[in-house]
Amino acid sequence: MIIDIHGHYTTAPKALEVWRNRQIAGISNPAEMPRVSELQISDEDLRESIENNQLRLMRERGLDLTIFSPRASFMAHHIGDFEISSTWAALCNELCYRVSQLFPDRFIPAAMLPQSPGVDVRTCIPELVKCVEQYGNVAINLNPDPSGGHWTSPPLSDKYWYPIYEKMVEYDIPAMIHVSTSCNACFHTTGTHYLNADTTAFVQCLTSNLFDDFPTLRFVIPHGGGAVPYHWGRFRGLAQELKKPLLKDHLLNNVFFDTCVYHQPGIDLLTGVIPVDNILFASEMIGAVRGIDPETGHNFDDTKRYIEAAAIDPEARQKIFEGNARRVYPRLNAVLKAKGV
After folding, report:
1. What pLDDT, on the 0 to 100 scale, is given for residue 206?
2. Distance between CA 56 and CA 50 in Å, rounded?
3. Which of 47, 112, 116, 144 is most exposed, with the fewest beta carbons within 10 Å of its own?
4. How far is CA 6 from the centre of its chain?
5. What is the average pLDDT value for the chain, to the nearest integer?
C-alpha cells in the first residue's frame, strides 16, 4: 500500500474561493459578510473536483490513500480575527470530511486549526475535538507562524502551544508543521516561507527540551524538512555545542520528515542522511510545483518515482510508502485495520 501523508484540497470548487473573498471583504464592510449557509457546494461538485484531479493522478501514479487537509496557502490565519478564522476553518474542514465520505478508501481527513495571531491557542481546541471525534481526522496541521511571515508567535517549544500538544497526546495524533500564505514581501510563500518554516520548526525543537515534557508528541516536518537534511552536520554540531543529546535520541523519536522533494538528488540526500524510520511518503500534489520536469519528462511532484529509484532496500521502501505512516498516524492505522487492510 502507498500512503501519501501530505495532500491538500487545492482543487476545491470555485464557490469556496468566492465565499472566502466575500468574507475578507466583509471584514472592512460588515454588510458584505456572507452567511455560512450561502456557501452551496453539492456532493457532485466535490466528486467532480476530486475525480478529475487528485484521484485521477493517484490512479495514474499508483497511490492508494491520501491524508487530506484544507489548502495550506488558503488557511491565511493572518486575515481577520479569531471569528473569521474559526468560520473559515470549520468550512474547509467540513469539505475535506465530505470528500473522505465520498471516497472513503482513498482519502482520510486532517484538520486545519482556527489560529489567529496573538490569540490563545485554547480557542482552537473545540475545532480540533470536533474534527477528531466527529470527522475522524487522523492529524492536524499546525501553523507555527499565523502572522504570515512576520513570526510574532512564540517558538514551538513555548508553553503557549502546550494546550494543543496536550490534546494531540490525548488523541494520539501527529501535527504536520505547516505555515500558510506569506504576507511578507521578502518571503515567497512556497519558495521561501514554507522551507524557512520547516527549518525553523526543526531548530526550535533542537534548541529546546520540548519532548521531555511530551515524550509521545509527534511532528511531521514537510517538504523534506526544508534545509535540515542538507545541513544535518550543522545541526548535529549545534546540538553538541548546546550540550544536547545526539539528534537520534533528542529528536528522532518525535520528529519525522516527508518526501515532498521534487528531484532525484534531493530524495537521495534525504534517504542517505535521515534514518529511514523517520521518512514518510508524500507528494503534496496538486500543489506548489505542478509542471513537468524537462530533464525527466515526468511531473516534478511525482515523488513515487524518486522513492522507487532511490538506493534503498525493499524493506526501507515499504517503511517509507506505508509502514511509517501507520506508526506515526495511529488513528489512520486503526481505520485501515478495521477495514482489514
Report:
1. 98
2. 8
3. 47
4. 6
5. 97
From 157, 169, 177, select the one nearest 132 (Cα to Cα).
Answer: 169
Separation CA 261–CA 225 (nearest Å) = 9
Enter the C-alpha cell of residue 336. Answer: 485501515
- Please pick, among 94, 127, 284, 322, the residue that the annotation labels catalytic: 284
| Distances, alpha carbon 66 to alpha carbons 161, 179, 296, 337, in Å | 27, 20, 25, 16
Residues 6+ apart with CB under 8 A from 142: 113, 161, 164, 175, 176, 177, 178
Q: In the predicted model, what is the mean pLDDT of residues 17-42?
A: 97
Beta bridge partners of 205: none
In whole angstroms, what is the distance from residue 172 CA to residue 163 CA? 14
Domains recognised in the chain with CATH numbers:
3-338 (3.20.20.140)
| Known catalytic residue at 284 | yes
Closest CA to 255 of 215, 210, 203, 220: 220
Place of cell 488513528: 331
**Separation of alpha carbons 218 and 222, rounded Å:** 13
Residue 288: its pLDDT value, please? 86
Reported as a single tens digit per residue, the pLDDT across 222-235 is: 999 999 999 999 99
Q: Which long-range contacts (CB under 8 A, 24 or more apart) does 13-18 make?
A: 13/41, 13/45, 13/46, 13/48, 13/49, 15/39, 15/40, 15/41, 15/45, 16/41, 16/91, 16/92, 16/95, 17/74
Helix (H) or strand (E) holding 55: helix 54-61
The share of the chain scoring above pLDDT 70, in percent, equals: 100
Dihedral sign computed on CA atoms, order 24, 27, 33, 39 = positive
Q: Does the reported pTM lie above 0.85?
A: yes
Share of the chain above pLDDT 90, in %: 99
The Cα 262–Cα 289 span in angstroms is 8
